[in-house]
Amino acid sequence: MSYLAATHMTCGYGGANIIEDCSITVERGEVAVVVGPNGAGKSTAMKAIFGMLNLTEGSVLLDGQDITHLPPQDRVPKGMAMVPQNRNVFVLMTVQENLEMGAFIREDNIAPTMEQVYELFPVLYEKRYQLAGELSGGQRQQVAVGRALMTQPKLLMLDEPTAGVSPIVMDDLFDRIIEVARTGIAILMVEQNARQALEIADQGFVLVQGQNRFTDTGEALLANAEVRRSFLGG
Amino acid sequence: MDILNAFAMFANFVLIPATAYGAQLALGALGVTLIFGILRFANFAHGELMSFGAMATILATWGLQGMGVSIHPLPTALLALPVGILAAITVALLSDRFVYRFYRHNRASPITFAMASIGLMFLLAGLIRFIIGPQHQHFADGERFLISAFEFRELTGLSQGIAIRQTQVITFVVALVVMAALFWFLQKTKSGKAMRAYSDNEDLSLLSGINPDRVVMIAWMITAALAATAATLYGLDKVYQPFIFLQMLLPIFAATILGGIGQPVGAILGAFVVAYSEVMVTYAFRQVVGLLGPADWVPDSMLQLMSTNYKFAVSFIILVVVLLVRPTGIIRGKVIER
């Protein structure tokens, strides 16, 4: 049984279904990547898994427990953390306060976790007393990921973490995400930069029009001629 | 000596009263700005919430006076203020429970909230007039002056005196203490930070597990405490009169918007700018100017820009100019969305 098993999900806004019979699974300590063309329903699938959209069909199991009908804020204590694509930091608060807010639900000592985040993203330690809104795009993404890690999640969900950052920063971010996965955290990531994302993916899901088109290891998907032709630009 | 005399006169009639007034406005504007930051609507019922708090304080003051309790030379109202604060908090939490929560759960637009708050404003205004009546109430006791104009003249040998009323000093000191406590709360405590986070980015605060109902409750409690304190200080400094609080909405909103909506520091800045402008524009400078030059150099006019009857026009002009020129306010705040 996978750590996260979202199976046969169907949902949408209003009448039309954006995703249909879509299944996504993630294992502990692995990176799962969802790729696909614009409008394929990648972000919608993420929202559905986090409970920000109600499923009309299908179910979400976390560690074998059915959480299909749990509201988003109750999924945080269950070990899920999400980095949204936009507006993912508290811009009027310092970097350190952003991290503190990430750990809001924790009653224990958060200092060790904060130290780990600063070890992972050393630049955040240098800028810990600066407002998050004053940082560069890449640094903001680091704050956003750091904030999510502060809950000590078992599943970290990232919605296009590299949107709008330079290629160098992107490589760096991917390296850090692999590091996070090595600590045993399951990672589910939606990415526009499909090729680079699949390179670090243990498992890849190619969505087209809200449905699973290909599901395989990242390596196999990169080797698949049809995937390359249709989604990776040859 | 004449320059000192002119300054003494200016301080006596402009600087000191305007500072006290500014402190009262600041406490009011802080409440409006907090509610806007957290619940994202302009709370028109805020003036009546202030009035209700002051009314409860006055009733408690009378009770204490009747029992012969006194903290002379300080006014008894300071002792009664916690009662007023509790009453205002009760009203605020009840109105949230029975009015605003409904709209919050329905994700109503800010304008719907504002309209509901106008209804609540009339309801509270009526209730207040039922309980204490529409007439003005004096409830200040204790020592009147910290230093009277006469004592000041004796002390300094100047021809112009500076009278410092005790209520002005109390207003300023209490306002300072309350503001310091508020900023400490917002900057240093977990609940305060959660409030800022919620105001900053509601969705992300939910993703962090911050409980919105708790944030809203704390916001109302702080706002009500500030409102009751502001109105009690205003009543001590001048007089308590129910209808004044409808008029006070204008300078309070002007201060909030001028400072940047949702920005506590801005609210305080805005309040003092509005207070100084209002007092200076409506003050007749003839005598002050007269002291600065030869005996016969002053013109016949009063050197008053605007009659005191029009003092609310000052806030109105500030409001309109800010909205036209810099809608985000001095410290970049939120812009009211339609």
Largest sheet of chain A: 6 strands, mixed
Look at the structure and give the CATH class of the domain at 1-78 and 196-234 in chain A.
Alpha Beta
Compute the CA-based radius of gyration of chain A: 17 Å
Helix content of chain B: over 70%
* Strand segment tally of chain B: 2
Estimate what percentage of residues of chain B fall within beta strands.
Answer: under 5%
**Biggest protein-protein contact in the assembly:** A-B, 23 and 17 residues
What does this structure look like?
- The complex is a heterodimer of chains A (234) and B (338).
- Chain A has helices spanning 42-50, 72-75, 95-102, 111-120, 122-126, 137-149, 167-182, 194-199, 218-223, 225-231, and strands at 4-11, 19-26, 31-35, 57-62, 65-66, 80-83, 155-159, 186-190, 203-208, 211-216.
- Chain A is α/β, with parallel strands linked by helices and 234 residues long.
- In chain A, the strands form 2 sheets. Chain A has a 6-stranded mixed sheet with strand order 6-7-8-3-9-10, with helices on both faces. In chain A, strands 2-1-4-5 form a 4-stranded antiparallel sheet, with helices on one face.
- In chain A, a hairpin with a 2-residue loop joins strand 9 (203-208) and strand 10.
- Chain A starts with a strand and ends with a helix.
- Chain B contains 13 helices and 2 strands, in the order H-H-H-H-E-H-E-H-H-H-H-H-H-H-H.
- Chain B is mostly helical and 338 residues long.
- In chain B, helix 1 (2-39) runs parallel beside helix 6 and helix 10 runs parallel beside helix 13.
- A two-stranded antiparallel sheet of chain B has the order 1-2.
- At the A-B interface, helix 3 of A face helix 7 and helix 8 of B.
- Chain A: Residues 4-234 form the ABC transporter domain.
Q: Concise description?
A:
The complex is a heterodimer of chains A (234) and B (338). Chain A has 234 residues and is of the alpha/beta class.
